[in-house]
Amino acid sequence: MIALFGPTGVGKTQTAIELAALLRERGEDPVAISADAIQVYRGLDLLSGKPSAEQLDQLEHRLLSFVPLNEEYSAGQFAAAAHAEIDEALAAGRTPIVVGGTGLYLRAALTELELKPPPQAGLREDIERDMAQIGAQRMHGLLSEDTAGSVHPNDRKRIVRALELERMGERPYTRSDQLWSDELRRPASLFGIVAERDPLAARVSQRVDEMLSQGAAGEVEQAIELGISRTARKALGFRELAAYAAGDVERDEVAAEITRRHLAYAKRQMTWMRKLAGVEIVDRSEMTDADAAHVVLAAVA
Q: According to the model, what pLDDT value does residue 173 have?
C-alpha cells in the first residue's frame, strides 16, 4: 500500500495518476482510495477538488461521493469504510494508493485510531449556543488549564470539541501526534507531498480561480437548499462562497480569502507531516507530476 498526502493544490491526484501508470507498467493493478473529509459527500465537487471525469477514467477512485450532503459523517465511520476498501483491494491483489488531504481521515484509513466518543445528545448545541452568546475567548476560559494551553483562544471549533470532551469526563488530545500511531494496520509506504510557499501559492490561487469560474458558488447555494449537514459545512471555503453567493462580498475578495485560508491550512498540514515517523517528504516545488511519481516509485521499488 502507498499513501500520498499533502496540502490542497499540491498535486496529489495527478501524482497518483502518474504513479498508477508506472505501477501498471510493472504489472500491478492500482486503485486510489480517497481520504478526504469533504470528498465523501455527493456534491461540492468543485469546492472539495474532486478528481475530474477525465482523471477518474485514468485511475479508479474509491470513497468519493457516497454520503448525502444532508447527513453528518464522522472519522470513525470513515475508518470502517476505508479499512474495508483497503482490505478488499489487497485481497484482490490490487495496490491501494491512499490519497489524502485531511490528516484525521488519513490516520483513520491507515491506523487503528483510538477516537474520542461523539458528543452526547444536545451537548454540542448547548455549547455552541453559549459560544454565540459570550464569544470564543470567554468559552476558552472555561477549559481546564492543561487543555487551554493547546487550543488557540480563537479556534471556535476546537474549543467546542474540547469542552464537549471535558464535560463528558474525557481528556481531550493536546497534541496532533496523539492521534497518530506508528503501528499501521497494513504495511505501507508513506509520502508527504510538499512544495515551497511561492509555487504552492500560485497553484492554490489558480485552483481557486478555476473553482469560482466553474460555478463553485452555485454548488454551495444548492447545498444550502438541500439542507447541508454540519459536518459538510466544514468544507474550507464554504462560508466564504455562501457569502459570495448571497451577494455580500465581491469575487476578488472571496478568492483572496479562500486562498489565504488554504495556505494557512497547508502550512499546518506540512508542519504535521514533517513530524511523522516513517514519512518520506517529496518536495515537488520544481517537479512535474510525473517527476514526483518517479520519485515515489523509486522509493517503493
A: 62
In angstroms, the Cα distances linking 81 to 64, 88, 130 are 11, 11, 35
The C-alpha cell 507498467 sits at: 25
Is residue 200 a contact partner of residue 9, using CB atoms and an 8 Å limit? yes
Structural contact between residues 22 and 61, judged by C-beta atoms closer than 8 angstroms = no
Identity of residue 38? I
- Give the pTM: 0.82
Do 64 and 105 form a contact (C-beta atoms < 8 A)? no
The whole-number pLDDT of residue 147 equals 86
Mean pLDDT of successive 10-residue stretches along the chain, which has 301 residues: 92 97 97 96 94 97 97 90 97 97 87 72 90 92 86 85 86 58 84 93 94 96 94 93 95 96 88 79 94 96 70
As a whole number of angstroms, the distance between CA 113 and CA 19 comes to 28
Q: Can you read off the three cell numbers belonging to residue 252?
A: 476578488
In degrees rounded to 5, what are phi and psi of residue 30? -80, 155
pLDDT score recorded for residue 32 = 98
How is 91-121 classified by DSSP, letter by letter?
Answer: HTT-EEEEEES-HHHHHHHHB---PPPPPPT
Going by C-alpha positions, the residue among 189, 218, 192 that lies closest to residue 1 is 189
Q: What's the CA gap between 134 and 128, in Å, rounded? A: 10
Straight-line distance from the first to the last Cα atom of the chain, in angstroms, rounded to the nearest whole number: 12
Residue 52 DSSP symbol:
P
CA angle 141, 142, 146 (to 5 degrees): 80
Query: What are phi and psi for residue 32, nearest 5 degrees?
Result: -90, 140
Strands 61-62 and 279-283: unpaired
